[in-house]
Amino acid sequence: MYPTLIELGPVPIHAYGFMMAAAFVTGMYLLRRQASKEGINPDVIGDGAFWALIIGLIGSRIAHIIMFPDHYALNDPKGWIAIWQGGLVFQGAIPVGIAFIYFWAKRHKLGFFFLLDFSVPVLALGHGIGRLGCFFNGCCYGGTTDSFLGVQFPRIPSDTTQSVTGSPAYFDHLRRGLIEHNAHWSVPIHPTQLYSFFGLVLISMTLFYLRKNWRPFDGSIVAAYFMIYGVFRFFMEFVRADHNPTRLGAFTDQQVISMLLVLFSITIMFVMRGRGAKPTPITSPPN
Fold it and tell me: 0.70 cut: is pTM over it?
């Protein structure tokens, strides 16, 4: 756990925010580079990616507020916007992001599903990089484990000059009586943040491969993304232990959302196949 990378005078550089910025810069570079290779105006893609990020962050924060209302207070307005310290639900970005991409595609005369197929491999990679921020921040942690993969989170960061006084996993274990009050470490837990990082990188690589070698129609890659990520996140919830809400029966809210993503994927496949859709050929940059 290393929630603050460095402090520049009174200004702390949070690991979570830094990794989010790294994900955005990496994604922007790859999208513009890919656009140039495929005859698409990179400025159109770059500007769209910037606004998609802003809108996606707002959607992610709103989803977190809805799922975890106890984390927010009316007398702490800064806490509602301090996304650099964590508190985002990725799935909250999906509906608003899709709505924005639809608007952007229409405005610049690009195919909506074509633009989704263009974007999602990079989106998955950026999501994976962001999960490293979760690991440094100590959030989104897993359940206890005796396996060699287990990691322990500290009572305080290794750098005692940092202001954060403990990891969420540590305090959770203390509250549940799994460790003593004078313990310096949590019990070993699944590093679900790292599982997600490697899983999302693999998903990204798979989507890049499919987009290059298998795209029977526009929408096939985004459908594959929703299918693969939905299944991955559904099973990841079984080893998560950060108390995602369970309000809809035996499944967590995240698992319900994951199942909806899989259903959405199947719907896209049937609809686009039923229409006899074909992949959009790459021609020349749009104006």
Answer: yes
Strand-strand pairing, 4-8 and 11-14: antiparallel
Nearest to 26 by CA among 125, 100, 135, 101: 125
**Which tens digits make up the pLDDT trace of 7-59?**
777 777 788 889 989 999 999 999 999 999 888 999 999 999 999 999 998 98
Supply the DSSP string of 32-81, one letter for each residue. Answer: HHHHHHTT--HHHHHHHHHHHHHHHHHHHHHHHHHH-GGG--TT-HHHHH
Q: In whole angstroms, how far apart are CA 206 and each of 41, 124, 201, 212, 213?
A: 25, 10, 9, 10, 10
| Predicted pLDDT at 170 | 85
Pick from 59, 203, 79, 51: which is nearest to 131 by CA? 203
SS3 label, residue 237: coil
Nearest to 80 by CA among 98, 51, 57: 57
User: What are the structural domain ranges in the chain?
Assistant: 4-203
Measure the CA–CA gap between 28 and 5, rounded to whole angstroms.
Answer: 23
163: tokens are 């202001």
Residue type, 206: T
